[in-house]
Amino acid sequence: MRLLFGGLAGYTVRAAVRLGVVEAIGDAELPAAEVADACGAQPQAMARLLRALTALGLLKESPAERDVFSVTPTGALLHPGRDGSMAALAQIFTDPVLLRGWELLDDSVRSGRPSFDTVFGTDFFGFLKDRPELSAQFNAAMSQGTSETAALLPHAYGFGGRGTVMDIGGGDGTLLAAVLAAHPDLKGILYDTKEGLAQSPATLERAGVADRCTAAVGDFFRSVPPGADLQLLKSVLHDWTDAQCESILGHCRAALAPGGRVLIIEPVMPEAVDPQAAGLTYLSDLNMLVNVGGRERTRRDFEELCGRAGLTVTSVTPLPAPSRFSLIEARPE
């Protein structure tokens, strides 16, 4: 029953974000009626929502007074204005656009192709391109999803001697900005589509690295700008089929400076399922199937994929817990 009700929990979180529940409560302890008034909601219905959020661990009910609530540390992640916020992630992963394809998961399993394309008549990224508001929401979610890695990566990999670092498919620049801020001797290139780079100037300015980073618009299926000593690919390859990834990695290899490296940053699935694992990577794997046609991969998968693109995997290093990501370093053969 917990599994069957899991989707309903997602919609409950979505409602909390859309209503602004966490912002309304803030750091206080408020009665449900006051939260309802602040959010423009019906008091009894709001009390019911707040109780559900409490049961999910996002709020805490006062032991002294019924229907008086405060925000837990987990619930605080839904505040859009706070560091570490996951509000945009909560909205995009519960958006009807991303969920429609899941209704046809069985069709995707039969065909091996994304059901998103069947539902909307176009691929996911083509759909975003024509909808700037949704594209901006997606970019914000990807930035939030990268914030944990951005805090860890600058100190988890040896950037010394890597004069120029390029983040390929780097979106708003959250990851590259963190690397450049931690390593003042580095220069950066942020490479993505026009839509992907839309929010990058503000990110680079906030980090104080805009003077050491250039943005390049392009398509990694056609080419990658030359000259970088280190190329970053975070959460890129899992969006694409093996053939598409081979094309991306081939362009990466061709563009690397002598002695350069490619650093792939993605979850690495175990060769056999761990029954004690939370299952997030496997659900992400199905999400890739349904919405974009990509997949999550094992170490062997990455080694074979890199090998076909003329790269050799030299190391696979998990980032510190609780991160689900690993650093997969590869060099030209």
Describe this structure in words.
The protein is α/β, with parallel strands linked by helices and 333 residues long. It is 45% helix and 17% strand. It has helices at residues 6-19, 21-25, 32-39, 43-55, 87-93, 96-100, 105-111, 115-120, 124-129, 132-156, 174-182, 200-207, 242-255, 280-291, 299-308; strands spanning 30-31, 59-61, 68-71, 164-168, 187-192, 213-217, 230-234, 261-266, 268-269, 297-298, 311-318, 326-332. Helix 3 (32-39) packs across helix 4, helix 5 (87-93) crosses helix 10 and helix 10 (132-156) packs parallel to helix 11 (174-182). The termini are far apart. The model has no long low-confidence stretch (mean pLDDT 95).
Proportion of helical residues: 40-55%
Computed Rg? 21 Å
Biggest beta sheet summary: 7 strands, mixed
Q: Number of DSSP helices? A: 15
Structural class estimated from helices and strands: alpha/beta
The stretches of 5 or more residues where confidence is low (pLDDT under 50) are none
Report the mean per-residue pLDDT as an integer: 95
Let me know the number of strands: 12
Summarize the structure.
With 333 residues, this protein is of the alpha/beta class. It has helices at residues 6-19, 21-25, 32-39, 43-55, 87-93, 96-100, 105-111, 115-120, 124-129, 132-156, 174-182, 200-207, 242-255, 280-291, 299-308, and strands at residues 30-31, 59-61, 68-71, 164-168, 187-192, 213-217, 230-234, 261-266, 268-269, 297-298, 311-318, 326-332. The N and C termini lie far apart (51 Å).
Secondary structure layout:
Blueprint: H1 6-19, H2 21-25, E1 30-31, H3 32-39, H4 43-55, E2 59-61, E3 68-71, H5 87-93, H6 96-100, H7 105-111, H8 115-120, H9 124-129, H10 132-156, E4 164-168, H11 174-182, E5 187-192, H12 200-207, E6 213-217, E7 230-234, H13 242-255, E8 261-266, E9 268-269, H14 280-291, E10 297-298, H15 299-308, E11 311-318, E12 326-332
Parallel strand pairs: 4-5, 4-7, 5-6, 7-8, 9-10
Antiparallel strand pairs: 1-3, 2-3, 8-12, 11-12
Helix pairs in contact: 1-5, 3-4, 5-10, 10-11, 11-12
